[in-house]
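Model it.
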Amino acid sequence: MFSYPSRPGGFRLRYGRSRNTCFAAGGVSPATMVLMDDFLAPGTQMKVERPGKALGIAPVDSLEGPTVRLLNGRVVRVDSIDEARKIRSSVSSILDIGELLINYGDFLENNHILVPSSYCFEWWVQELHTNAGKIGKDVPYDDSQLTDPGGQTALELCDTFNVALHPQYTYLWHDVTSGEIITLSKYVEENGEFAGELLSIPVDDTIKQILETLLVQHSIQEQQIDIEQAAPLVRCLGLDGSLQRHRSASQDDFPDPMEMVNHLAQLTVRARAPYRIGARMGRPEKSNRREMKPAPNVLFPVGEAGGRTRSLINAKNYSRSFKENVGVYEIEVDCRACTHCGTVTFRNLCPDCNSPTLPKLHCPVCNIETNEPECPKCHKETTSADKLTINFKEEYKRAFENLGERDNLDTFKGVQGLISKHKTPEPIEKGILRARHGVVTFKDGTVRYDMSDMPLTHVRPDEIGVSVETMHRLGYNVDTYGADLVDASQVVELKVQDIIVSYHCAEYLLKTTNFIDDLLVKYYGLEPYYKAGSVEDLIGTMVIGLAPHTSAGVLARVIGFTGASVGYAHPFFHAAKRRNCDGDEDCVMLLLDGFLNFSRSYLPDKRGGKMDAPLVLTTRIDPKEVDKEAHNIDLLYRYPLEFYEATLDYANPKDLEKLIETVSNRLGTPGQYEGWGFTHDISDIAMGPANSAYKTLGTMIEKMTAQLELARKIRAVDERDVAERVIKSHFLPDLIGNLRAFSRQQVRCVKCNRKFRRTPLKGVCPKCNGKIVLTVHEGSVKKYMDISLKVAEEYEISDYTKQRLDLINLEIKSLFESDVSKQMGLADFM
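Modeled.
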């Protein structure tokens, strides 16, 4: 848990879009990622209170980071990731977890009212210029100088241009009471010393608590609280530069703290964070190869000959008894007959005369052989799948000889059985080459890699490991502002079918290219295609992107790499896959791999069997044809002043469509592809932890311990409630489920992995004489019992939940502890 809904200290909503957010993706400061004990990383899914169900999280270092209290009492806002890493061990409390960037388009897509915006720099600076124009005065500073003008200058700008107090010096007055404001004001008046811009007051627990709630940064030196740039704070307390009162107020007259502080300051002070966004972790980011379990190198059946690991090496040496031939076993496979000599085989070419083979069709009900796709008797669909005894040792040897490879593989796995309609197997040769290069196949014969989807509309060459010359070769010649691309730090607009993959993905794709080249040369007798020796050689490589619930791949080009565990691509590319970016993950595969190795014949013969398969390929993305979610992306470099004012009235986002330009306004024009803007920049799209702590921590107990330690520090989170939720949502269902599973469990053979409802009478597997063992063990039933009882006691969770744990503990003890053979001590007899 990062923030309870609408609770002070939680995520402060900031409207806008970075070049790596939009389309169900939000931004947080990389410092927030670090100080959340690395539970947040680029691509981590976060379930949010509003505007939709979830967001994929991206680093945006132009946002404000968390405000923390250190062990020495100092309160500081941490915006730099380096500073966050430096002080993380010294943090005693996270008073505020920073800003959460959400774009207008997400509110429009979810038809969610616009809640009041936090008072931010882009709002303030537009008010400043608007007011300056009204009175006919020029602002004597550039916008870049105004991000933090200093306390005294901020007050001068207020008085000169009648603008609200600068956000940098606008504290969270709405989080305290009017009475606390009066208490703080009187204490500073009576005890403070104000010289220059430094305010010093004696340490007082009540006063320090108020300052922490306001998020006033301060340090403690020799029992003194020191506040720098304190002129705006002094003014807001109704005091002058000599700490003399120039404005009084009573709690009865001003029960609302915002009205009181505006009265005391005699200037406009806006709400710094009128709305907080509740958020919790959904699921961690992903960047890993797609594989079945166990992961096969080839779609070739081994039955029980391969053992529990489906090993083809074991299958070639398999024999059920000394009387049987080694490596000979029966499998259900696609049976084909040679058109010349009649030999029955599973191959497309006869192993004896090299002539073509045809499927031997038969009715699975009547067992009538026929050449027709339908049985003439019962009209059922015919199939060529049938039992066939093969000499796998010979097939194995022949495959290595065909490739000119040595039989020295350490691991080589197939599948237990085929699940396609005709049980069509892959050539063993393909599996040999995959195993040689360390890649595995998916159910359709392709090699795939999964990554969490993250949007990206603009990119810098230096952050994706690509030179300017390479970008020119890829078709990037100007930056997003129209200037010639001459420096790797310039920002360019990403083309809609270009993607950036993780370095780990690139390494796996490199292995796949080597496999494909070997396949072309050694199996097909052709020239190699990729000739890649390093990941840099993959720049410009064509790939297919595919979402698990679709049957249509989308063509893409790899143009760079990222250290984050995600796949960055244009939102149109994700939308073309029928995806948004709120934590979804999709795969990429080499285009040539799909052409060479994909076959419908391998797909499962069941409902949904054709899903997650590239049956068709989209070669050109038309923005009009992608999911309409992508049409709501806003394209401005700065939201107008009228937008922020409209949020104060909880405006419907549809009422502002004419005010804020979105993709839907540009459909059918060149502007649908280019000329996009973004409101907040970032130094590097891969900032923050490479992986969430949820992935790097080992056991569930370690994850829970780390989560509760974080909950202790975050002001916006109730650690007692978190502890109870973890026990009720995770540990209790696990304990109950495992206890039930133990009482209903099957037993299995350790050799062939066959399962039985009850232990066979002979005590061993009737098929292979293997040892019979339990499938659910005592340790798995009670593994969370002790830690649940410990957490329940330490965090004082509800009595009801404690009693549920005690009852389950009694059931576990009654099942596993014997009353007869109980160990007794001398004291038991006294």
